């Protein structure tokens, strides 16, 4: 996607979010977006909110969800309403003959049914089971139509108790870096040299909050989620003190 297409996409997104906010304000009702990716969530938080009369909150079905819906809440609203999110557990019909399926396999099978990506939230894969968050309107269709992922026959089931969800597993990584530049931090995260990370950044394989970053000098902020294709993903958790050699103590949560 070239620069012009990116700007057009961002302009359309901003227009859509403003429309949802206006609808919530003038109609006095809670209004929800579809699922937003990390880059869209970042753009949403950057939009001006002064005097809008609408509060914006986000949620993806569980704590720390990456893909989330935005709720536009008018100031005059005094009651709460659940987000229109359902969770579907997908298990193999026969454990014995099941393949080892990936996030991409499950997502591909769902999109091949004709469902738009913005109707699907996070997909959590653990062993041979996956939990798929989706817009509640899509749940009946998925329950009826999703019967195969790659070569594996599957059985989808609507999940009612979120306590059954697999927990996100992270590993704490800490150390010192000369700066919070992108190349320095991802080098620490994946125990690699800065020079090897620069080629990944310039090769378009590094994303911060869902946005492709091509500058190794990009400064990270606490809370940023960084994905490196072929390496993994982590959350930038904390910047501590500075050593006598003017290096920064930092800590990360690397997804296992």
UniProtKB/TrEMBL annotation:
<keyword id="KW-0694">RNA-binding</keyword>
<dbReference type="Pfam" id="PF17774">
    <property type="entry name" value="YlmH_RBD"/>
</dbReference>
<dbReference type="InterPro" id="IPR002942">
    <property type="entry name" value="S4_RNA-bd"/>
</dbReference>
<dbReference type="Pfam" id="PF01479">
    <property type="entry name" value="S4"/>
</dbReference>
<dbReference type="InterPro" id="IPR040591">
    <property type="entry name" value="RqcP2_RBD"/>
</dbReference>
<protein>
    <submittedName>
        <fullName>Photosystem II S4 domain protein</fullName>
    </submittedName>
</protein>
<dbReference type="InterPro" id="IPR012677">
    <property type="entry name" value="Nucleotide-bd_a/b_plait_sf"/>
</dbReference>
<feature type="domain" description="RNA-binding S4">
    <location>
        <begin position="180"/>
        <end position="241"/>
    </location>
</feature>
<dbReference type="InterPro" id="IPR036986">
    <property type="entry name" value="S4_RNA-bd_sf"/>
</dbReference>
């Amino acid at each position: 996607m070239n620069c012009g297409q990116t700007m057009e996409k961002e302009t359309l997104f901003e227009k859509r979010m403003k429309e949802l906010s206006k609808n919530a304000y003038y109609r006095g009702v809670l209004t929800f977006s579809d699922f937003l990716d990390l880059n869209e969530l970042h753009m949403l938080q950057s939009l001006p909110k002064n005097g809008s009369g609408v509060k914006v909150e986000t949620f993806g079905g569980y704590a720390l969800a990456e893909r989330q819906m935005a709720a536009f809440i008018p100031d005059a609203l005094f009651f709460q309403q659940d987000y229109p999110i359902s969770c579907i557990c997908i298990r193999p019909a026969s454990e014995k003959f099941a393949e080892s399926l990936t996030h991409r396999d499950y997502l591909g099978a769902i999109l091949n049914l004709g469902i738009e990506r913005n109707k699907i939230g996070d997909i959590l894969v653990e062993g041979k089971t996956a939990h798929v968050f989706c817009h509640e309107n899509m749940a009946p269709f998925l329950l009826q139509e999703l019967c195969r992922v790659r070569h594996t026959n599957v059985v989808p089931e609507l999940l009612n108790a979120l306590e059954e969800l697999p927990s996100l597993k992270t590993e704490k990584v800490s150390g010192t870096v000369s700066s919070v530049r992108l190349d320095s931090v991802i080098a620490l995260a994946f125990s690699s040299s800065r020079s090897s990370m620069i080629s990944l950044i310039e090769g378009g394989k590094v994303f911060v909050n869902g946005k492709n970053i091509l500058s190794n000098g990009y400064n990270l902020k606490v809370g940023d989620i960084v994905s490196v294709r072929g390496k993994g993903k982590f959350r930038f958790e904390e910047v501590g003190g500075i050593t006598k050699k003017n290096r920064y103590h930092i800590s990360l949560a690397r997804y296992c």
